[in-house]
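Sequence in, structure out.
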Amino acid sequence: MFVRCYRGKLSVWAALCVLVLCWFYIFPVYRIPRDKEIVEDVLRQGEQWQKNHTGIDLYRKLLSECCDPRKMFAVTKENSPIGKVLWYDGEFYHSHTVNNDTYPLFVPDNPLPLPLKKCAVVGNGGILRNSKCGRDIDQADFIMRCNLPPLSKEYVEDVGNRTHLVTANPSIIEKRFQNLLLSRKDFVEKMKIYGSSHIYMPAFSMKPGTDLSMRAHYALADSSSNLTVLFANPEFLRTVGKFWKARGVHAKRLSTGLFLVSLALGLCEEVTTYGFWPFSVGLDEQPVRHHYYDNILPYKWFHAMPEEFVQLWHLHKSGVLRVRVGQCPHRRKEV
């Protein structure tokens, strides 16, 4: 009896495997271009770029309908009153009910000076090294940066030094600042480089990040810092993830950069990205470090950076946003 059942199970699995193989044969999955193919396409495109007002308006409309970035990108007193249940977007079985402790930490409503005109979204890719894009970046009306990047003198020429919004992953607070349990002074001092910008933190994405984000908020508030901590709305992050999944980005979680690009597309009249290049070689076929400040690779399988870049490059070619790759125009020709 047991042997017959076991063989029966094997037959079922064999049939399922055949069906799956037939499905992929009839409907082949989308193939991400190889690194070399992408480099060749970028070089072919060259300096050509033309702003597409219709495409920009369409994407803003699509993002408004699915994700409402104007009202929902951050947790506010307006969209998250006391008693509201915030479901974590990274851990679906956890939630936080807004209470008298957390509600006072939220900003009243959208704090950004809308409408935003020319926005720069600055990634941390090694492609920024020797790009001389700092002046270009600093000339934008609103500048977004990812994960508390260094802006010291040695990098300013390539990445600029102005910031209006910068993300801070709780894991950075954990590793770089020892959970803010021993001393908060070092954290407060290092945050001064971002001026009076907004610190955007995913406090309700993973449960361990909630306390870390709250500590960062208290550390800056207690020091009378000019920085404003914003907590990313998990509903916004979740809907943005679905938006890009429907467009071919299949990953456990979107990168911080793509979240910011989505925010910019929903709020800005013109978007330019810098430092988005998830490949190991540059346009000159020379090796490129992962970050402009180090070569630490991300966790494998967590993000789908090449898929994300393909989507951004499609938007670049269609005039919805501009992707800067290579050196900026005041020193050499741009891409």
